[in-house]
Amino acid sequence: MTTESYELFVYTVHTREVYDVTAPTLDALALHIVRKTYCAEKAMRAWERVAAVAAKEYAREHGSGGDVWHRMFPPRVRREAAQQLAEYYAQQLVDLATAWIGPESLIVEVYDWSHDMYGNPIAHHSVVGDGVSFRTRRRQQVGYSSERDSYAATAIYRAGAAPRWYELAESRIDRHGLSVLTYHRKPVTT
Length: 190
Fold this sequence. Notes:
Layout: H1 3-14, H2 16-34, H3 40-62, H4 69-72, H5 75-88, H6 90-101, E1 105-115, E2 121-129, E3 132-135, E4 140-141, H7 152-159, E5 166-173, E6 179-185
Antiparallel strand pairs: 1-2, 1-6, 2-3, 2-4, 5-6
Helix pairs in contact: 1-2, 1-3, 1-5, 2-3, 2-6, 3-5
């Protein structure tokens, strides 16, 4: 790590004008994690763009009249600073994605069973988790599997969580006809 790249890194982290570019980058990368489309190579290009903005701002603020930002901080230096930024913001990025995905576990209850006009099983659904909840107004089709979780993913989505990040951990049916499906969140990584 060179002195120039470290100076650019510190300037990037501690300057409000540059953070106005860093925050949307964090949001965009976290959204890619949530959608499971995250690519480390493309993320590094995003951090290089943030480093370039920081280099321009640094040259404008601290440079003399003849200094040009891309000579003050050549591409090699900006890449090093971008690598440091990626490492520095890695945990914040995972925390942000985790907040968007939803709570650690969700419980989907399926109750009030009936049949629609075609004879398909239908029931009400409720989703309960830390900070999310949802209850159907009408009965929804539940399917014929032993877990009866055909509508569970939609209910989880409508509760405000990302269903692709959850996996069924436990399924039980009590003698009163209440099905309880417990979902746990998969580990979030970049």
